[in-house]
Amino acid sequence: MSALFKQVLGRLKSASQGVAVGLALGCCATLAQAAATTAGTLKVLVPSQTGFSPQAYTSANLKTVDFDTTLLTNTAGVTQGSTSATGGGGWSTTTTASPAPTGFASKFARVASGTSGSSQTQLSFTNGTGYVSFLWHLGTGDSDNTIRINLSNGDYRTLTNCPDASTTCVGGYDTVNFFQGFFNVLLGLTGQVNETQSVRVVYTPPAGVLVTSVQLTAVRHQVCAFWFLCSWDNRNLSIDNLSYDDNTDGAPLMVLDHVEVVASNASGLTCQNNTFKVRACANAACTTLYTKGVTGTVNFTRSDGGASRAVAYSIASGSAYSGDLSVSMPSNWGSSTTWNTAATSVPVAAASSMCAFGTLVGSSACAFTANKTGLLLSLPAGIAGDPQTLTATLVSENLFGACTSPSGSGSLTSTVTAKYGVATNTTVATLLSSGSSSTLKTLTSGSAITGLTTGVSSAVGTNTFSYADSGQVQLDVTVTGLSGTLSSLLGVKNSVVTTVVPAALKVEPVIGGNIVLTNPKLAAGGDFQLRITALNKAGAILKNFGAEPGLGAVNLTKALLKPAGAALKNNPDLAMGLISFNNGISLLTLSWDEVGSLDFVASLADYLGSGKSVEGKLTDTVPPGLRLVPAKFGLSATPRCSATEGASNIAFAYAGQPIDVTVTALNADGVITQNYDGTAASPTDRLANSVSIATAGGANSGTLGGSPVLAATAFANGSGSGTITYGMTNKLSAPDTVTLTASDADVNTVKSTPAVLVRSGRIKLSNAFGSEKSVLDMPIQVQYWTGKSWTASNDSCTNASVVTTGALKRNAYKSHAGAVSSAWATTASSVTLTGGVGKLTLTAPGAGKTGTVDVELDLTASGANLPWLQSLDDACGTNTVCNPKARASFGVYSPESKKTVNIRNVF
């Protein structure tokens, strides 16, 4: 191994003995930055060091991509962007090598520079991360490659694989180039020794800053013996075991500051086991807990250097407290009664462990006293407002090491001082004396109460403790008086810490600034609030809640009550945001983009390490839950007709003609709510309602016909279609521009109100006459009423074959004399219109077959289905419409050129 590499490797080893690398690395990593404002913690570890593999980091959100069985393509939270590649370069996630680099899986990721420049790719963290770690192969001949860590505040960190022994490089060394080797031999020079090495890069940004991406750049290498004799080498940047703390749940990213060993009493006994817990702290004051999982060992060592006890502990992810640790400290192990305590942890804490024995907060004072004689205090965690029992037990170690209590009975008098976990607490606890005096004592913070009496039987006495708020309370008890057979224990003292837990979290919906407990309903996509209140057993608000040091996070989860199963079309995420309490109340603003019925569950697990959890549901106060409905409807109306009038094309519908309508259920942002659906088999599973279409303006000449309603079953994924009609009261009604609106039982707002031009129309069939020897054309024209007269419509919707032969009626065949006749007949063609104009052609009856026939266009028949174009005809009744009718005459009149009505000669 070259001396240079040994020097660099030595620096790597010495720098990573648990020492965080700050603005200047103690090893060989460049720490470039845009502005020297953000430090964070950077470590570079070699294979021999703890944390290289496996890495010393635990978290419920920790994800690892090994590029062997787990690839970026199936790992949420990190994506690979486009690669800028040069000749022969590129990005691969399935690279293999034999043997594989130290610590690498059989497959790993690689960026190849190519031989004409450099290649670069970027790995982006979708939710940001507060921790990133990866193995980097400082391969032989792969120098000059760069890894840049980008931060959410615009800053960045850069590590470079350089061949120098300076503090600006992580050491990797060039392969001896062919030309360089040739001239080394030729000139008698000594070439560099090729070395290879893997390191683990670990970076944790400071609080409030996230890593957004890691940028990987492989740079080609150029070696020249002379200016004209050069070669270019491909460089590879290889990484594996990419780990990151994915922030998908929005939980605050944190690091372990220290762990604390806690006990409810400041001292214990040698004759029985003593109980401890370990809590994990995310800051120095332990006002923020670390909940990403910790394991370790608590070491109890007698102060005289004698016996020791080591107890393993584990804190599960999501909690900050271990289970109970039971430790014996027998007197026969030595004369010392003081045991010094220290704890180790994985992940490694930033600061030394602390202790909190019979106190509310931890400190560096970690001495626990194990006495042969003492006052044992027990005050289990209880519910706020629910009386608890404070038990005092006088115990001594007997000749055989077991615990014994003085016999007989008597009375114990003590002085008690209370300390509260919430410094601003205004609620005070009480203690009830027992025995001969049952005086209620009020425990003002920091002020001692004297004369608390406790009736004792067999060395055990009890008092009733009551606290109407939440949090932790520390009681320091000193025995000041004993009567009967107990007097030998005068002067013993101890402390106990109890946890008072909220009875419930009440969740209520707030709409428009008001708590709504009856049919709470709001528009999808609009803001609403949830009021979460911490209550004691009597239903009073716990004003301490939210101010307790070390309070864990209150989790709020959404439960979708409806729709469910196949009826559920969309279930978007709901951003909860930070839940903070002030005087026991949290007001959280939320928004959900869909329709449905929601429940919300507020929960806090393991309140202050008590092992007790507190929970509340919205459905506890509002059983049906919170109902979200469309904010508005989108409504479109499309008439089926148009006409060219001058330079314009006018869209319109004839009165009585179907108009196509589409209704979409929208949220407050105008996005379709897909759960507004009526396709479910069971009506109770459908969120869509029947939607009524009504006129919002116009409608001066008529009304919507029939039942203008879209059934609930017409809706699928938030959209429903159907038809409506608008009928004129009188056929001779002027055109009317009608605006439409849509509503259901919950929604009466329309995004935009469409306007439809409606005209009263008719088909005019004109009389015709001609020879019985030739076909006869009867003129047809589509017309509409202008308000003053009928005029040609020139429409597009009644073009082509609008009336088939089956819808044509020929009635009242008569002879030329006017008598009913069956001596002749004619057949009719179908009717074809162009631009609203056409003709009906009748076949010639034949020579000598003269007479008239009445022709009717049956617009209600299936062969026409144009009832809105029927004509006004008094023959059908006053102001009544009928099918268009006209008379065809064959051979009744002389040809037009020979007809004479009157001749007048003017001279």
UniProtKB/TrEMBL annotation:
Record bears the keyword Cell inner membrane: no
Residue span(s) of domain DUF6701: 362-893
Residues in the signal sequence: 1-34
Domain of life according to the entry: Bacteria
Keywords from the named record: Signal
Pfam families in UniProt: DUF6701
PROSITE patterns: PROKAR_LIPOPROTEIN (PS51257)
Name of the protein in question: DUF6701 domain-containing protein
Organism encoding this protein: Aquabacterium commune
Lineage: Bacteria, Pseudomonadati, Pseudomonadota, Betaproteobacteria, Burkholderiales
